[in-house]
């Protein structure tokens, strides 16, 4: 894989660059433990507004622009410092076309974030997942992490050197 900054962005949205992931060596049959994710860690002190771990926990809405040569189902996962996660599926419907996606994750009444600069949540954009991460049932509500449930249904973006993935404008808000 080659990771780079690209000037390919959705027209008229105000973005100057995107992240580009380009497959340079095809792998059409992922081993069980193989995976590819693009992740962003967010510090717990920057997530206190979500009131995680309380009875008034806030839902979180994530929006982003995405484009890929490979259509199909992709997974976004929120993985927290308490070893809990929630995953959502989205579909890239049209090859090589910028699409805006908006996903809402329920609030979590368990496991508050530490109010400091340590890891609070990891936002994982899955691009490939072997059976270790995709052989169960997608974890669409907050629960203790079960690897088999993290990326169920994820396409294998690594199956062709013609595949690429672009993302920009990621926003996370209550």
SSE layout:
Layout: E1 2-6, E2 18-22, E3 35-43, E4 60-68, E5 72-80, E6 84-92, E7 99-105, E8 119-129, H1 131-134, E9 143-144, E10 164-173
Antiparallel strand pairs: 1-2, 2-10, 3-8, 4-7, 4-10, 5-6, 5-8, 6-9
Please give a structural write-up.
This protein has 174 residues and is an all-beta fold. It contains 1 helix and 10 strands, in the order ββββββββαββ. It has one helix at 131-134; strands at residues 2-6, 18-22, 35-43, 60-68, 72-80, 84-92, 99-105, 119-129, 143-144, 164-173. The chain has a 5-stranded antiparallel sheet, with no helix packed on it. A 5-stranded antiparallel sheet has the order 3-8-5-6-9. A hairpin with a 3-residue loop joins β5 and β6 (84-92). The longest helix has 4 residues, at 131-134. It is globular and about 45 Å long. The protein starts with a strand and ends with a strand. The model has no long low-confidence stretch (mean pLDDT 97).
Write a concise synopsis of the structure shown.
The chain has 174 residues and is mainly β.
Number of DSSP-assigned strands: 10
> Main β-sheet, in a few words?
5 strands, antiparallel
Contiguous low-pLDDT stretches (5 residues minimum) are none
Mean pLDDT: 97
